[in-house]
Amino acid sequence: TQLLEQSPQFLSIQEGENLTVYCNSSSVFSSLQWYRQEPGEGPVLLVTVVTGGEVKKLKRLTFQFGDARKDSSLHITAAQPGDTGLYLCAGAEYRLTGNQFYFGTGTSLTVIP
Amino acid sequence: EAQVTQNPRYLITVTGKKLTVTCSQNMNHEYMSWYRQDPGLGLRQIYYSMNVEVTDKGDVPEGYKVSRKEKRNFPLILESPSPNQTSLYFCASSQFTYSSYNEQFFGPGTRLTVL
After folding, report:
1. Is B27's pLDDT higher than 70?
2. A3 band by pLDDT with thresholds 50, 70 and 90
3. Is residue A25 exposed (0-12), middle (13-18) or buried (19+ Cβ within 10 Å)?
4. Contacts of A97 in chain B (CB under 8 A)
5. pLDDT digit string (tens) for A24-56?
6. Cα angle vertex B106, ends A51, B95, to 5°?
7. Closest to A100 (Cβ–Cβ): which among B45, B100, B106?
8. What is the pLDDT of residue A29?
9. Residue B31 and residue A40: Cβ atoms within 8 Å?
10. Which 3 state secondary structure label does DSSP give B84?
11. A&B contacts, CB < 8 Å
12. A56-103, pLDDT tens digit by residue?
């Protein structure tokens, strides 16, 4: 079983603050994805990173894939209440029968107005 | 509307009573997958399928069966449910099996309670 550890598990911050969520593993993945999940719904993809060292920006969100393709981070600038949700990272492992996905345990973010 | 549908959304059953959770996608996606989500454990992949008649085990396949007889459908079967299978289940699909940029589209979830 491959483990993706996310930290912190819970995060409560004031509107306007910055934050970083980490996703770490001892395994190398062919790609890493970040999803956001709201209560009562399925996860929704935010971004996919593939290349070691890759940085992607999505408005106020910045995603980074580690050089060794084992870890990733999500940085949110000037958090807003709409950013509240469960953030999940997921690593893809290539197999002949298709990609197997391993999800992190999640970071529950609450942004207080 | 492009979507992944699951039925039922909520199910309470008793130990040992066979059940099936259906999953259907209308996007002609190759890849489909089942996950369970438990507090503190995140999402764990149960089974996945790269196309019709091709399925493989994920991280936690014990106690579950799947089939992929049609491209659009991927039912999850619990032959003899046990209380430790009480969980929130998600079906997901993506367009291609091998693309690194595969976006998985998730269904709304099925909350299963086994008494």
Report:
1. yes
2. confident
3. buried
4. 48, 50, 54-56
5. 998 888 889 999 999 889 999 999 999 899 999
6. 60
7. B45
8. 87
9. no
10. helix
11. 81
12. 999 999 999 999 988 999 999 999 999 999 999 999 888 888 888 999
Question: What is the helix (H) or strand (E) element at residue B23, kind and residue range?
Answer: strand B19-25
Q: What number of other Cβ atoms are within 10 A of residue A70's Cβ?
A: 18
Token pair for A13: 């911050």
Q: What is the pLDDT of residue B2?
A: 83
Q: What is the rounded CA–CA span in Å between residue B41 and residue B46? A: 13
**Residue B87: its pLDDT value, please?**
97
Give the Cα separation of B104 and A47 in Å (integer): 11
> CA neighbours within 13 Å on the CB side: how many for A61?
15
Q: How many CB atoms lie within 10 A of CB A56?
A: 15
